[in-house]
Each structure stands twice: as structure tokens, then as C-alpha cells.
User: Which sequence fits this backbone?
């Protein structure tokens, strides 16, 4: 076995995106012309892992891919991005997406309840150090509609009552709201205004960046980690694509490291 596995370990989904650009959706059974087709690497868990690795984390992915060309290509993609594939399995069975859990070697666990279910096993609230969800996930879990930082704070308070230690509710262009058992008053952490081109995968960029900071800069305050993760995710919305838009350490201001 390896002596040191990784600083960031992501357990989660790994999917190949098959993207067609068409003028409209075809009806059932209809064939229409498209203008573009491309294959992308996706899956919320894999996205998060690649963002952490691009920032310089020693990262490993735990997932299973098929024994086919997409699976082989994905393993190559991990290797290219310096993600350890020691725990990437290959099987003839189809992969299924599920909630992703990020674990690092010390104590810290970030839980990203995507896609959210209303009757989530309550152990998930108490066992994660950081519970990070977006507006709609917060609403599904708490029943509180989240449309503003104030709403996010209210939903976050419910999650604290259920036993979460620290809660982050992401709010797209509004940044996020943080709160914790120690500081129960929600705090809104806005992000910078950018020209958003494609916000797909912004949440995964954010969680991946957070995992990087939790693993490599554990002494930073929650607020500082989240400000930097906001910044990194804001870079990702300024270009098209998911992983293709994720910045590397060299693309970012060096005072973030
Ligand atoms: N328009 C934007 N401008 C600046 N930053 C953004 C914007 N959209 C998203 N972000 C950044 O990305 C983070 C996560 O975004 P969001 O809350 O939309 O997550 P999400 O819904 O899980 O994303 P997605 O499902 O699109 O991957 C935000 O907290 C913020 O830091
Ligand atoms: C890849 O990871 C190894 C081990 O973690 C590290 O030594 C190396 O610098 C990394 N390479 C790149 C290009 O990031
Ligand atoms: C994957 O497929 C190759 C041949 O296509 C075969 O040799 C190998 O045993 C398969 N592996 C698994 C895990 O099914
Ligand atoms: C939140 O994430 C879910 C995936 O769990 C996604 O379907 C949904 O669109 C996201 N919500 C927002 C407001 O972006």
C-alpha cells in the first residue's frame, strides 16, 4: 500500500458528458441537425477532485468507470491532471451518480449533498465537518425556500440544529453564506462581479477549491477559505465548459497560496 495516500480524497461520481448543440430539442423519435458535438469529462465528484489537483493538492479519486473507451479516457484524464487512479476501478456495470463525499487525511470531511433528497440519513449532518450545499439543495433539505442571503442563513440555522458543525450555502453570483456551531449568526460572503459565460460546474469548482484549502491551509479561517473558493469558482464561470474552465494554480493570483 502507498505510504501517503493523498491530501484530498474524493468519493463520488465520474461521468462522460456527451454534449450536442442543437437549435431545439428533438421530439420523441425525431432526428434533427446539430451544429456541434463534444465529449467532456464531468461528474460532480471528479470535477471537485480535478479542481483540487489543479490547485496543487495531492489528490486521489475513488470511483468506478466502465471497461470501455470512455472509462479508459477518463483514467487518462485523471492521470493528465495528476489525480491518483489507485482507487479508480473498472467494471462492466454502468456507473451511477450519487451524493459526493470528500475526505482528507486529517479529520476533515466536506459533504456536498448533490443531488439532494428530503429524507437524507441524519447521520450525514453530524458526521461531516463542513456541510456545503447550494440554494435548491438547502431548500430540499430544510423546506425553506432560499432566494436571498437571509433565507440561506435561515436554512443554514436549521442544518446547524440537525447537527452540522459548519454550513456553507452557495448562492451563485451572490457568493455564499457561512455559519457554524461556534458562530451561529450567518455571515454573507459576497463574491466579485464577473461576466458569467457558463456557470456549469461552478459549485464543484467551489467545493474542490474548499477541499484544497482545508487540506493544505487548515489554519486559514473558514471565512478566508470561502473567499478564496468564491474567487476560484468565479474564474470558472467566465469560460464555457466544466473542467475546461477550472483554473490552475499558475492562472491565479499567487497570494492565494
Ligand atoms: N455568476 C457568478 N459570478 C461569480 N461567481 C459565481 C457565479 N456563479 C457561481 N459563482 C461562484 O460559484 C459558487 C457556486 O455557485 P452555485 O451556488 O451556483 O453552485 P451550484 O448551483 O452547485 O453550481 P452548478 O450546479 O452550476 O455547478 C458560488 O458560491 C460562487 O462563488
Ligand atoms: C504531481 O503530483 C506529484 C506528487 O503529488 C508532484 O510531485 C508533482 O509536482 C505534481 N505535478 C504537477 C504537474 O502538478
Ligand atoms: C476489460 O476489457 C478487456 C478487453 O476489452 C479485458 O481484457 C479485461 O479483462 C476487462 N476488464 C474487466 C475488469 O472487465
Ligand atoms: C444545485 O445543485 C443541483 C445538483 O444537486 C442542481 O440540480 C441545481 O440546479 C443547483 N441549484 C442551483 C440554484 O444552481
Assistant:
Amino acid at each position: 500500500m502507498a505510504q501517503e495516500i493523498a491530501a484530498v480524497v474524493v468519493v463520488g461520481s465520474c461521468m462522460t458528458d456527451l454534449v450536442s448543440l442543437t437549435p431545439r430539442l428533438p421530439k420523441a423519435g425525431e432526428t434533427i441537425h446539430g451544429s456541434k458535438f463534444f465529449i467532456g469529462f464531468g461528474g460532480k465528484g471528479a470535477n471537485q477532485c480535478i479542481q483540487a489537483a489543479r490547485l496543487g493538492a495531492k489528490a486521489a479519486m475513488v470511483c468506478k468507470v466502465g471497461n470501455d473507451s470512455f472509462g479508459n479516457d477518463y483514467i487518462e484524464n485523471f492521470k493528465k491532471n495528476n489525480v491518483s487512479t489507485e482507487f479508480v476501478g473498472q467494471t462492466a456495470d454502468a456507473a451511477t451518480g450519487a451524493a459526493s463525499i470528500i475526505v482528507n487525511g486529517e479529520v476533515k470531511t466536506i459533504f456536498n449533498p448533490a443531488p439532494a433528497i428530503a429524507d437524507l440519513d441524519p447521520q450525514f449532518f453530524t458526521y461531516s465537518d463542513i456541510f456545503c450545499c447550494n440554494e435548491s439543495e438547502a431548500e430540499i433539505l430544510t423546506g425553506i425556500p432560499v432566494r436571498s442571503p437571509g433565507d440561506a442563513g435561515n436554512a443554514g440555522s436549521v442544518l446547524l440544529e440537525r447537527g452540522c458543525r459548519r454550513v456553507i450555502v452557495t448562492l451563485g453570483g451572490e457568493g455564499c453564506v457561512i455559519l457554524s456551531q461556534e458562530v451561529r449568526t450567518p455571515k454573507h460572503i459576497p463574491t466579485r462581479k464577473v461576466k458569467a459565460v457558463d456557470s456549469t460546474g461552478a459549485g464543484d469548482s467551489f467545493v474542490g477549491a474548499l477541499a484544497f484549502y482545508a487540506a493544505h491551509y487548515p489554519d486559514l479561517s473558514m471565512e478566508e477559505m470561502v473567499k478564496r473558493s468564491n474567487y476560484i469558482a468565479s474564474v470558472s464561470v467566465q469560460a464555457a465548459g466544466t473542467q475546461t474552465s477550472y483554473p490552475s494554480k499558475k492562472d491565479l493570483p499567487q497570494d492565494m497560496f
Summary: The first helix runs from residue 44 to 54.
